[in-house]
Amino acid sequence: MLSRFLYNFFTSFVILMFIFIFQTIWLFIDDLAGKDLDLAIIGKFLFYYMPTLIDKVLPLTVLLSSILTFGTFAENYEFAAMKASGISLQRAMRSIVVFVAILGVGTFFLANNVIPAAEQKIWNMRRNIAKLKPAAVIVEGVFSDIEGTEMNIKVAKKSGDQDRILNDVIIHQKSKTKLNTTVIKAKTGELVSSKESDIIQLVLNDGHRYEELMPKSNKEKKKQPFARAKFETYISNIDISSLNDQDLEQESDITTDKMKNVVRLTKDIDSLKENNLKQVSAFSKNITARMGAFPAKDLDTTYQKVAADVMLKGGKEVKIDTAVVDRNDIASMLPVWQKDQLYNNAKNRVSNILNTVRGKKEELNKRYEIYNRHILSLHKKFALAFSCIILFFVGAPLGAIIRKGGLGLPMVIAIILFLAYYFIGVFADNYAKKGAWHPILGAWISTLIMMPLGVSLTKRATADKGLMSAGNLIDRITSLFKRKKSED
Questions:
Q1: Are 408 and 415 in contact, with CB atoms under 8 Å apart?
Q2: CA 437 to CA 423: how far, in whole Å?
Q3: Considering Cα of 458, then 460, then 461, then 467, what sign does the dihedral take?
Q4: Cα Rg of the chain, angstroms
Q5: CB 360 within 8 Å of CB 284
Q6: Which phi and psi (to 5°) does residue 260 adopt?
Q7: Exposure string (b/e) for 125-138, b if CB count within 10 Å is 16 or more?
């Protein structure tokens, strides 16, 4: 049984890995196609990307191979022969269970060591592709958008070392208002870059620069003024850092939560939590000070100070009787012009504070999303290893129950179960990252949902029960009606 399971396991793993690699090629088609990349570079990129597919390929492989193996044995009545010889299902599964347990430990090692290193390699390779082959961003004969800039470039031909030399260059540069106001044409150009910088220099030779001027007055706008300049050498700097946009995951050392092992994640989670609490505490104190807020116990003291102030009225000093003035309407002590000024100042201060709070809220949401991502990555390493064991106990008894081998029904059932497992995990991840529920629950919920299913299927397979026993259900309903009738 172990040899048969291993055959199905490695066969399924290779087939599924190829399927997911082709899906990866389609996912990164914009980055890889039409940019003069060598096959060796594309091959390295896919090789480094393969470990990141483990979280999808391995659980599906375990589920499919267990259904195929035990479905084939049940279809050929080999389980019936085993049970007739006194061999239970649990005893028959013993060797495979040991292998799956070892597989779970190995999966954790991959998730903790190999996958983070592969994520780092992928990031560096995307960065280096743009730096070592800057011409890969530009395609011959069409306008190419430079991501992260407001620039479109078209060249007639590329040549030279790593296609750095450009011929017949046309550049459309958009203004801050997103209008195409600048056009640059040059006979030749050259891309200059270095490994240490995120900046590519575009050096243009023998060309012209046209720019539409945007005057403020309507009278000048009707004249449609523009500026034209001829140049021998024109240098433009292109920032390619956006090609590796890390969003909320980017950190100072250019490592994301997916690039860290358990030790690093545990350390960074504590640091992020402490830093977030300091940010919240400091901001709370700042807002309290700006609002002039004070505790309720100081209300009487503050009221006495305000009410006892000297108010000028008609050039004379008038003392306020604190016993007469309504303490809930201190502004009534002031004249109308001061009262209006007071209310306007208060309204402006409140508006400014609300704008500050909204801006800080977005910043804190991003900080806590990074914090949640780290907790997710930490627990998903353990959940991935545990899911391989759980899905085996789902697939093995399910194969024994349906009693079908081959790639027909077992494949359909495996895909349905895996899609349910995968999409539950995706939705849970998204909710956990946004703080809708705890990140630990987001990492484990898909596995925890599959656990009772595995326990139930194992019990039914051990007791030789079918997947859906319609006869038992009908008998229960009939007995229920008979019981009610006898009670009447």
A1: no
A2: 17
A3: negative
A4: 35
A5: no
A6: -120, 150
A7: bebebbbebbbbbb
Facing residues of 395 across strands? Answer: none
Rounded to an integer, what distance in angstroms lies between the CA atom of residue 405 and that of residue 5?
12
Instruction: Encode the chain (488 residues) as per-residue pLDDT tens digits.
Output: 888 889 889 988 998 888 888 887 777 766 665 555 667 777 888 888 888 888 888 888 888 888 888 888 877 777 778 777 777 777 777 888 899 899 989 989 988 888 888 888 887 777 666 555 555 567 677 777 665 567 788 888 888 776 778 888 888 887 766 677 788 889 888 887 765 566 778 888 989 888 887 777 777 767 777 788 888 888 887 766 655 443 333 333 456 778 888 888 888 888 888 888 888 888 888 877 776 655 544 545 544 555 444 444 444 444 544 444 455 565 666 667 677 777 787 788 888 888 888 888 888 888 888 888 888 888 888 988 898 889 888 888 888 787 776 667 777 888 888 888 888 888 888 888 887 888 888 889 988 898 888 888 888 777 766 655 544 444 555 566 566 556 65
Query: In angstroms, what CA-CA distances link 194 with 93, 132, 133, 302?
Result: 58, 7, 10, 64
| Model confidence pTM above 0.70 | no
Cα separation values, 248 from 123, 253, 254, 256, Å: 15, 14, 12, 9
Rounded-to-integer distance, Cα 446 and Cα 449, Å? 5
Question: Is 118:261 a contact under the CB 8 Å cutoff?
Answer: no
Which residue, among 227, 163, 152, has the nearest Cα to 191 in the 3D structure? Answer: 163
Q: Which helix (H) or strand (E) holds 54?
A: helix 54-75
Asked if 38 and 129 count as a contact pair (C-beta separation under 8 A), the reply is no
| 39: Cα within 13 Å, side-chain hemisphere | 0
Residue by residue, DSSP assigns 121-167 as HHHHHHHHHHHH-GGGG--BTS-EE-TTSSEEEEEEEEESGGG-EEE
Return d(Cα 472, Cα 205) in angstroms, integer.
85
Q: State which amino acid sits at residue 372.
A: N
